Amino acid sequence: MERRTLPDGYRRAIEAHRQAAPPSLVDLGIAEAVERQTAAMRELSRRAFPEPDVVPDDAPTQIEQARVQRRRQAAATEAAALRRARAERGGASASSTPPPRQAAGEVA
Predict the structure, then answer these.
(1) Which of 83, 86, 96, 102 could form a disulfide with 106 if both were Cys (CB 3.0 to 4.6 A apart)?
(2) Could you tell me the pTM of the whole model?
(3) Which pLDDT value is given to residue 98?
(4) CB contact set of 72 (below 8 Å; sequence gap of 6+)
């Protein structure tokens, strides 16, 4: 596609606008102070709210880990209840059945 040249009147109008535009009134000292303050606020924010360690996308989150732990505990409890019920139906007392093995920290 070929670019068309701009009309002379348009170019003159743009140039006149650029010349008439007021110069920037930014004080360099104020701009530097704003930059320093912004950097200081970001550093304080970084310290107050640190970014968590980068975790791979396929790694389980803490909530998922807690759910898995609860499911394991529920499964262990259900298995123990089924063993007791079977033992009681079979005529043996639940106390004569050895307790189920549990992993450290699990509750039956």
Answers:
(1) 102
(2) 0.33
(3) 59
(4) 103, 106
